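Section handout 9: paired folding examples.
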Amino acid sequence: MTEEKLVKRAVRILLENRYLTMATCSEGAAWATPLNYVLGPGPYLHFYSTPTARHSRDVEQTPRVACAVFDSTAQGDDVDGMQFIATCTVLAPSEVATVSEFYFENNFQDPEVRDWWYRPPSAFFGDGAWRFYRLEVDEMYLIDLESFEDTKVDGRIRVDVPTVFSALKDLQI
């Protein structure tokens, strides 16, 4: 499969899904959690969570995480997904207002639903109950569909991360 087709698949997967599973590890114990994400602003994925959640505490100790994005309702030939390795960091207070507004605007298209979910930027730093987190993707992999057709072995193929995020930027994401 050409690099262009791989990038288009990666972009489609990221745009068509809203949830990822993030795996963390600390003190020799692994943990996986489902998270709602948005693409951007910038070449990142963002989510928010409480700093007391196990995955948040794990990230404090070990910021390298593994994630999977896929449509859990897909069947047969519609199954597709990606895995990636990222560095997960808590946003600095100076970044929260921009990311917060972007997150709620892009994640909740319906204004009534957005109003219900909305929390002011102050809720995400200091004494606030939540934190925004940034996933900076370092490595990205897709299911190797061509090889699977021949071998029935579920392998992965690496995709160029900067090219994927450049394509997303071209879409103004």
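Moving on to protein 2 of 2.
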Amino acid sequence: MIRELRIQFQTVVLSQEQKLNGYEFMAYSNLEPGPFRWWIASKQAWQNWQVGEIAPSLLLIKKKGLWSQEPRGERKALGSCSEVPPMDDKR
């Protein structure tokens, strides 16, 4: 659960070397750090609220006409969406 979601987007100035190697565009996209908590399916309970990085940022790349993305780290899911109760659930 995230109280307020904001997306940050920051373009990267390409170097001459990157341009010569076919890079046309690069940018970082991430969720702004803020308060969040996770649902722990095994305990059927919410974790305490915490403040910090919600998800790792992505590097978006356009190289030689093709778009790709590279994650900057991975998070393991703590449960599936169907196991998470609605936001108004006070557990």
